[in-house]
Design brief:
Length: about 200
């Protein structure tokens, strides 16, 4: 069960943390772990990416919308989404990928960990991290996404793509079951190569 730290700029005291705890307890697939009013942050365990979406909606309804670490609210959907979808289609990508970002699930394995996400195409895609391999090959989804997990994953994945400009790169650090943060990179076809998501 992945553990993540989330930020809500409206947190001011322990009462706020208690309200967030109660809201999180009402969302299936979420387990509240701890909160820090001084950092305006809290930690939860998530079973699935959709649980994060449900938690964000519940927290917004309770008056604690999520934001990034600096307190900036999550960006609103672009009003020109249909234009972006048309551009993605023209670039050979799936219009369902416009504005989409992966939410990862990490499961310990004998060799390391499986890092999976629910893809916009409907499949459950991912990467099997084998800690004994220094430079593993990327893994791919049926929709053309390419994924790599490990040291400098974003740089190494970009170097392996035939046409890096044809992809939008989503790069994030995720915690492995043994506590180490590791970089995960996902190349999404048809996106704006200049747009990198770091989560």
């Amino acid at each position: 069960m992945p553990r993540i730290t989330l930020h809500a700029p409206d947190i001011t005291c322990d009462h706020c943390i208690a309200t967030i705890h109660r809201a999180a307890d009402q969302v299936a697939g979420v387990r509240f772990v701890s909160g820090d009013p001084d950092a305006r942050a809290f930690v939860v365990d998530l079973v699935t990416g959709s649980a994060l979406d449900a938690l964000a909606a519940a927290l917004a309804a309770a008056g604690y919308p999520l934001a990034d670490e600096d307190g900036a609210s999550a960006p609103a959907p672009a009003p020109a989404a249909s234009h972006a979808a048309d551009a993605a289609r023209a670039a050979g990508g799936d219009p369902r990928a416009v504005g989409w970002a992966p939410v990862y699930r990490v499961t310990r394995t004998a060799a390391g960990a499986d890092v999976n996400y629910a893809c916009y195409c409907g499949c459950d895609a991912g990467f099997a991290l084998d800690r004994s391999q220094a430079d593993p090959a990327p893994e791919s989804c049926c929709c053309g996404n390419h994924m790599l997990v490990g040291r400098d994953a974003g740089t190494r994945l970009g170097a392996r793509l035939d046409d890096p400009a044809a992809y939008r790169m989503a790069v994030a650090a995720i915690a492995m079951p043994w506590g180490q943060p590791v970089e995960v990179a996902l190349a999404i076809p048809g996106g704006d190569a200049g747009e990198a998501h770091h989560g």
